[in-house]
Backbone:
């Protein structure tokens, strides 16, 4: 193991939060980023099959225990706060459609979303306000955070389960768009559907 | 045909509850109420009913679904259960949809019942997809449940030292500012050029009297006024225009948001 | 790496405190202690020369970062920060009126001065405690330091411009008047000038 790998191993081990390549490079004294990346790769493969894994989530790296040890380690831990059904659903809608306004969330769920639900998700650090949509009324739009990806074990939003199929089958498009697609209706979307996010 | 992932069971789903209405199998009147509490609104109830058709959400029979929903609501009413307004609104809308679907084609209005039914189906598919996604999301390796972070990280010790900066000018200016602020102050109210609402009303209504054509609000402003007077005149002319419209003496048009506002006399 | 080693690796990583062989053995479900010891030895040698070490202290085992990385993991960062407006004012008052008590500073500024402001000035090395005033309550009095003169390029406090000069340069004019003077605008100061100039 070379000196850079040792330093990165030590730093990530001691760090309280995940670290990006940039943060590591500058923390360790202006190391070339490509070297840092190479060292991270080497380390990650070194830890394969071990009781600890080195993983990348939202472009930030951290060590965590191997998922198959969950049964062993879980018993000692306090239970995670259970997310309500509404909160889970709102979280999924934000993750798959981001950035998305509250009205858009409500139009998918067919019910009003209480402000409390969004607060819970923001307090958990999984959702943040991502600005306003530049349409009349300038509604606030929401998006997920790196901590969200972290917590749910996703490297990036592309890892969201089934997102590629959902996108391919048009299930992330607003109803009006999907309707036109199906019927070949050219009358154009109505105003408010027009604003709904067209996810990247 | 079946798109597979739409139907995978998800851990937090209530799908493993026996299908059918709770009121039937429980027999006590608040069971149905309790189950209604369990739904996240009428769309959720519809989705649940649709899933019981045991076909791909793209293949469901909307008519059958509508009937199931209406039955459900009817039964709730028979049991004199309190139903949230949105369930009743949905019931009314579905009843309308059902009657439209049963009408002969040529008596149909716009939008057609086919369109409404298809859109309802699309909404259910979308909600179903998100519910499925939520389940799979929660099924992943979550920190604190499946994987664990280091229990007692030493932390990276970053000692921050601050070096403060300030220059001589800022220092002397600050002193000047303090002295100026605490010096006795003399307040004077300056006269500002304004156009009062009364004179704007006169002016706008006189000018409207001259022509029947549409005129832009801007054209009512005094042409050579200095900028601040012009600003005041714009504000008071706008209010004057609203007042004249209220009195039925003028009409106002604006073609787009923030577009020019136009004004015309009402004969 | 065998299953027991993996489990021990994960458990020690996630543990909040070091664990004894006994604790590990019972935590992992009544494993034979000699097996646990053997696994710990194997793990410890695996980590030799790495950025993380597995060590035994007082019969309890834990991971720690390699001692030779300590210098890397502790960083000193110097940060340049501009003195806030409030702090600059307090500093100016001390410079013009020293030695001066906090109550006197407040009466000159016309606003309350937080203790934090004085702390910042002392941390910067520009202000020091110059004793107590021999009046009832014996309030602490403050004065500037030689570093203050240094930093501001003054050879002595007499270099500070006097009140008469300040007036001549316009620095004593009420802000509104100075603003008009500069801009020739009769409309009075714009909003934010208006707020700041009258925060007394």
Residues:
């Amino acid at each position: 193991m070379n000196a850079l790998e040792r330093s990165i191993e030590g730093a990530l081990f001691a760090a309280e939060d995940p670290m990006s390549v940039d943060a590591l490079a500058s923390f360790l004294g202006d190391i070339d980023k490509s070297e840092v990346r190479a060292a991270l790769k080497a380390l990650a493969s070194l830890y394969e099959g071990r009781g600890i894994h080195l993983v990348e989530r939202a472009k930030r790296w951290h060590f965590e225990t191997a998922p198959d040890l969950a049964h062993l380690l879980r018993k000692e831990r306090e239970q995670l706060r259970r997310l309500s059904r509404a909160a889970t659903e709102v979280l999924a809608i934000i993750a798959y459609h981001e950035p998305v306004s509250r009205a858009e969330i409500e139009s998918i769920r067919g019910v009003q979303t209480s402000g409390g639900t969004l607060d819970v998700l923001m307090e958990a650090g999984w959702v943040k306000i991502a600005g306003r949509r530049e349409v009349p009324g300038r509604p606030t739009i929401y998006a997920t955070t790196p901590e969200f990806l972290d917590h749910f074990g996703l490297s990036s939003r592309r890892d969201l389960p089934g997102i590629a199929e959902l996108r391919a089958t048009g299930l992330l498009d607003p109803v009006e768009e999907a309707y036109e697609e199906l019927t070949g209706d050219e009358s154009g979307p109505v105003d408010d559907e027009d604003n709904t996010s067209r996810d990247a | 045909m079946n798109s597979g992932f739409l139907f995978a069971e998800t851990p937090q789903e209530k799908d493993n509850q026996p299908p059918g209405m709770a009121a039937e199998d429980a027999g006590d009147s608040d069971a149905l109420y309790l189950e209604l509490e369990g739904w996240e609104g009428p769309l959720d109830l519809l989705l649940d009913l649709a899933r019981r058709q045991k076909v791909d959400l793209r293949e469901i029979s909307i008519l059958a679904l509508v009937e199931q929903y209406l039955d459900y609501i009817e039964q709730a009413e028979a049991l004199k259960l309190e139903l949230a307004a949105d369930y009743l609104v949905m019931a009314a809308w579905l009843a309308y949809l059902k009657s439209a679907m049963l009408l002969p084609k040529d008596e149909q209005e716009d939008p057609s019942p086919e369109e409404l039914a298809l859109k309802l189906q699309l909404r259910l598919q979308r909600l179903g997809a998100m519910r499925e996604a939520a389940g799979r999301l929660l099924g992943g390796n979550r920190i604190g449940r499946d994987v664990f972070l280091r229990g007692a990280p030493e932390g990276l010790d970053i000692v921050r030292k601050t070096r403060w900066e300030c220059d001589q000018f800022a220092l002397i200016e600050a002193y000047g500012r303090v002295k100026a602020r605490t010096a006795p102050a003399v307040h004077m109210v300056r006269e500002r050029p304004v156009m009062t609402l009364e004179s704007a009303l006169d002016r706008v209504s006189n000018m409207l009297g001259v022509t029947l054509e549409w005129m832009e609000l801007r054209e009512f402003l005094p042409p050579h006024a200095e900028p601040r007077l012009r600003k005041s005149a714009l504000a008071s002319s706008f209010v004057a225009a609203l007042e004249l419209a209220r009195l039925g003496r003028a009409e106002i048009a604006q073609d787009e948001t923030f577009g020019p506002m136009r004004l015309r006399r009402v004969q």
